[in-house]
C-alpha cells in the first residue's frame, strides 16, 4: 500500500512540475518535487524488499512509511509551486505549504532511526538505549518547532532571505501557536543546535556495532559504511555544481542509501562489498585529488604566467598536468586502499614471493604451516585461518591464526593428487566471497606451501626413519646377540657336554650312552625350533615356500576364530615382488586379520591383493563386516604400525569404516624398479591392539 502511494505520487509530481514556470520556481527557491518523489519510491521499494524477506522487520516498515511520506512531500512541493504561480493562489496551496515546509521537516528523523535500528531492527540495550531515545527526542525538536512556529520567524531563523512574496500571500499565520516572536526565535535556534548533537549517539552506536560484530553482521555494517561514503562523495560532488543539481544529488544519495540498506539486510553477500568499498574510496580520493590539483595548476599558471596565457591555454596545461599525475596516483592509491580493505590479493606476485621467502627461512614443518596461515589471513583479510595436516602416523596437526568462529568451511590441501590436509576459513565471514582470480591465488598459495611443507616433513621423517633404522638395526643385533648368547650358546654347550659324556659312558655301558644321546637329540630339536623362530622373525619362511598369497592364507588359518571366514583374493601377477614389499604386505594383512579376530565380531573378512604394473604399486585391502570403528576411536599401536610399515616404503595406509558395516584397511605399497629394494625396518609384533 505504501509503495503504491509512492509510485502513484511520482508521475503526479512530475506532471505538475512541467507546468511550473522556471522564473516562478526561482523566486520560490523550490526544487522540482519529482526528485523527492523518486527518492520516496526508492525508499519505499527498499522497505518492501526488506519486508518481503522479514515481514515484521521494524526498519522495513519505517522505510516504507518514510518513502510514502517523502513521495507525498514531493507532490506537495510541486503543487505549492504550481498553485502559487496563479494570482490568487489555487486551492490547496496553504495545505501544500504545511505538508512540504512544515511536516516535511519530520523526514530528518529517518537518518537517526536507520542508524539506530540497522541491521536487526532493534535499539541498543542498556544505557545506550536511553541515549538513543534521548537522541531521537532531540531530533524531533526541530520538526515539532517548525510545525508550530510562524512561517516568517521560521524562515528568518533558518535562512537569510525572507519568505518569498507568493508564499506571504497565503493565509498561514492562523495555523501556528500564538507565542511571542522572541520565544519562537529562541526555540528554533535551540532546536537547530540540537539537531547535529542528536546525531552523535547514532553514529557512536554504529561504530560500536561495527567493532563488535563478526561474520555476516560485519558484512552488513560494511554496506552501511559504503552508503555513508557514497553519500559523502555524492553530496560533495553536487555541492560544486549549480544549485539546481542539489535535488539530483539528494535523490541519488537516497536511492543509493536505500539500496545499500536493503542489500545489507537481505543479501549482504550479493556482491563483494570489500571490493565495492575499496573502489569507491579510491575513485573518491582520486576525484578529490584531481579537483584540487586542477585548481592548484590553474592558480599557479595564472599567477606565474599572468596575462601571457588566456583561460583556454591555462586549462590545457592543467589538463595535461592532471592526466600525467593522475595515471601515477591512481595505481598507487588503488594498491594502498585495496591492501587496506581486502588485503594483498590484488598483487599475487607480492603474495607468492613473500610466502616463498618466508618458507625458505623456516626449517620446521609446523612453523611453515603457521607461515601459510598468516599469509592467507593477510592476503585475504580474513580474521581466521586454520591449516590442518594429516601426518603419516595418522595424527592431525592443526595450526591456527586468529580466533576460530563457530562455523568454518574446509578447502582440501593436495600434494601430487593426494589429499594431505585441509585449509579452514570462516564459512560466512564478510571477506570470504572470492573471485576466480582469488581462488587461483589461494590454490597457488596452498600448492606452494603444501609442497614446501611436505618436503620439510618428508625430510624430518626421513631423518627420523634413518635414526629409527639405525636404532632398529642395533636393537635387532642386540636381540640376536642376546638370544644366541643366552639361548643357543648354552644349549650348544650343553649338547657338546652330553656328547662327551656319552662317549665316556659308552665304554662301560651302551644303554647309558644311548640315553644320554637321546637327551642331546631332544635339545638339538629344541634348538632347531629356536632357529626357525629367529629366522621367521627376520622373514617369514612361508613367503619363500608358498608365496605371498599362500603365506597370508596360512596365517589367516592360524589366526581364524570360530564363525569367521577369511578369503584371500589375488588380482594380477604377484610374482617378482621385492622382498621388502612382500614382507610389508604380509605384516599388514596379518595385523589387520588379528584385529578382525580380536575386535570386529565379524562373520567374513576378505583380503585382496591387487598389483598395478603400470602404476607401479601393490594395493592391499582388508574388509570385514563387523562392528566397524567407533567415532571416538583412538588409533592404537596396531593401527599406527600399519601406517608406519606402509610409510617405510613410501606408501600409505588408511583405516576407515566400510559400507554398509565393518572396517576397511587399505594400503598402497610402491613397487620399485628392479634392482632397487626399499629399506625395511625391524619387524614389529603381530596382533597389537588397535
From TrEMBL:
Entry GO terms, CC: plasma membrane
GO molecular-function term, one example from the UniProt record: phosphorelay sensor kinase activity
Protein name: Sensor histidine kinase
Main location: membrane
Domain of life, source organism: Bacteria
Lipid bilayer topology: Multi-pass membrane protein
Domain Histidine kinase: 587-673
Spans through the membrane: 30-51, 63-85, 97-118, 130-153, 182-207, 219-238, 244-266, 278-300
Compartment annotation: Cell membrane
Stored Pfam families: HATPase_c, HisKA_3
Record key words, sorted: Cell membrane, Kinase, Membrane, Transferase, Transmembrane, Transmembrane helix, Two-component regulatory system
Amino acid at each position: 500500500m505504501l509503495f503504491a502511494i509512492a509510485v502513484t505520487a511520482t508521475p503526479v509530481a512530475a506532471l505538475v512540475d512541467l507546468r511550473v514556470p522556471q522564473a516562478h520556481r526561482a523566486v520560490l527557491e523550490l526544487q522540482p518535487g519529482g526528485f523527492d518523489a523518486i527518492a520516496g519510491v526508492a525508499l519505499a521499494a527498499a522497505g518492501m524488499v526488506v519486508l518481503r524477506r522479514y515481514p515484521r522487520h521494524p526498519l522495513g516498515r519505517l522505510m516504507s512509511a518514510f518513502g510514502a511520506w517523502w513521495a507525498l512531500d514531493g507532490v506537495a512541493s510541486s503543487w505549492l509551486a504550481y498553485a502559487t504561480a496563479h494570482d490568487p493562489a489555487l486551492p490547496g496551496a496553504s495545505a501544500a505549504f504545511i505538508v512540504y515546509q512544515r511536516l516535511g521537516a519530520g523526514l530528518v528523523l529517518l537518518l537517526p532511526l536507520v542508524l539506530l535500528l540497522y541491521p536487526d531492527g532493534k535499539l541498543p540495550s542498556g544505557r545506550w538505549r536511553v541515549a538513543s531515545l534521548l537522541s531521537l527526542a532531540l531530533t524531533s525538536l526541530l520538526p515539532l518547532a517548525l510545525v508550530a512556529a510562524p512561517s516568517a520567524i521560521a524562515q528568518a531563523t533558518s535562512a537569510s532571505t525572507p519568505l518569498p512574496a507568493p508564499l506571504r500571500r497565503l493565509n498561514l499565520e492562523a495555523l501556528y501557536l500564538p507565542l511571542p516572536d522572541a520565544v519562537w526565535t529562541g526555540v528554533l535556534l535551540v532546536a537547530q543546535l540540537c539537531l547535529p548533537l542528536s546525531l552523535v549517539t547514532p553514529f557512536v552506536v554504529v561504530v560500536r556495532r561495527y567493532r563488535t560484530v563478526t561474520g555476516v553482521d560485519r558484512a552488513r555494517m560494511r554496506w552501511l559504511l559504503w552508503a555513508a561514503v557514497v553519500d559523502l562523495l555524492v553530496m560533495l560532488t553536487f555541492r560544486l555544481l549549480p544549485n539546481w543539481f542539489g535535488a539530483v544529488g539528494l535523490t541519488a544519495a537516497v536511492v543509493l542509501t536505500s539500496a545499500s540498506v536493503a542489500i545489507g539486510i537481505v543479501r549482504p553477500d550479493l556482491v563483494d562489498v570489500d571490493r565495492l568499498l575499496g573502489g569507491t574510496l579510491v575513485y573518491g580520493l582520486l576525484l578529490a585529488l584531481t579537483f584540487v590539483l586542477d585548481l592548484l595548476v590553474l592558480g599557479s599558471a595564472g599567477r606565474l604566467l599572468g596575462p601571457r596565457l588566456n583561460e583556454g591555454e591555462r586549462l590545457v596545461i592543467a589538463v595535461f598536468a592532471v592526466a600525467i599525475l593522475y595515471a601515477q596516483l591512481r595505481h598507487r592509491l588503488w594498491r594502498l586502499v585495496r591492501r587496506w580493505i581486502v588485503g594483498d590479493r590484488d598483487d599475487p606476485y607480492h603474495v607468492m614471493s613473500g610466502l616463498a621467502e618466508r618458507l625458505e627461512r623456516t626449517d620446521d614443518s609446523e612453523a611453515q604451516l603457521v607461515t601459510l596461515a598468516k599469509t592467507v589471513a593477510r592476503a585475504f583479510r580474513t580474521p581466521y585461518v586454520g591449516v590442518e595436516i594429516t601426518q603419516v602416523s595418522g595424527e592431525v596437526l592443526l595450526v591456527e591464526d586468529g580466533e576460530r568462529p563457530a562455523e568454518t568451511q574446509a578447502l582440501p590441501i593436495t600434494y601430487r593428487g593426494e589429499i594431505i590436509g585441509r585449509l579452514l576459513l570462516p564459512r560466512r565471514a564478510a571477506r570470504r566471497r572470492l573471485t576466480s582470480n582469488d581462488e587461483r591465488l589461494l590454490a597457488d598459495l596452498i600448492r606452494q606451501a603444501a609442497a614446501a611443507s611436505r618436503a620439510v616433513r618428508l625430510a624430518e621423517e626421513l631423518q627420523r626413519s634413518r635414526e629409527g633404522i639405525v636404532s632398529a638395526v642395533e636393537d635387532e643385533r642386540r636381540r640376536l646377540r642376546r638370544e644366541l648368547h643366552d639361548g643357543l650358546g648354552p644349549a650348544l654347550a650343553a649338547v657338546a657336554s652330553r656328547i662327551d659324556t656319552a662317549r665316556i659312558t659308552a665304554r662301560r655301558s651302551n644303554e647309558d650312552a644311548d640315553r644320554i644321546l637321546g637327551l642331546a637329540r631332544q635339545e638339538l630339536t629344541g634348538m632347531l625350533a629356536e632357529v626357525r623362530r629367529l629366522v621367521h622373525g627376520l622373514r617369514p619362511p612361508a613367503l619363500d615356500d608358498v608365496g605371498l598369497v599362500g603365506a597370508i592364507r596360512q596365517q589367516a588359518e592360524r589366526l581364524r576364530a570360530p564363525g569367521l571366514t577369511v578369503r584371500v583374493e589375488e588380482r594380477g601377477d604377484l610374482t617378482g615382488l621385492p622382498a621388502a614389499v612382500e614382507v610389508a604386505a604380509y605384516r599388514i594383512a596379518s595385523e589387520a586379520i588379528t584385529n578382525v579376530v580380536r575386535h570386529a565380531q565379524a562373520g567374513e573378512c576378505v583380503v585382496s591383493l591387487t598389483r598395478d604394473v603400470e602404476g607401479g604399486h601393490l594395493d592391499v585391502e582388508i574388509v570385514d563386516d563387523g562392528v566397524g570403528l567407533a567415532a571416538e576411536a583412538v588409533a592404537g599401536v596396531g593401527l599406527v604400525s600399519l601406517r608406519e610399515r606402509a610409510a617405510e616404503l613410501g606408501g600409505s595406509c588408511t583405516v576407515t569404516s566400510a559400507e554398509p558395516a565393518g572396517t576397511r584397511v587399505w594400503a598402497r605399497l610402491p613397487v620399485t624398479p628392479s634392482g632397487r629394494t626399499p629399506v625395511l625396518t625391524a619387524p614389529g609384533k603381530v596382533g597389537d591392539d588397535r
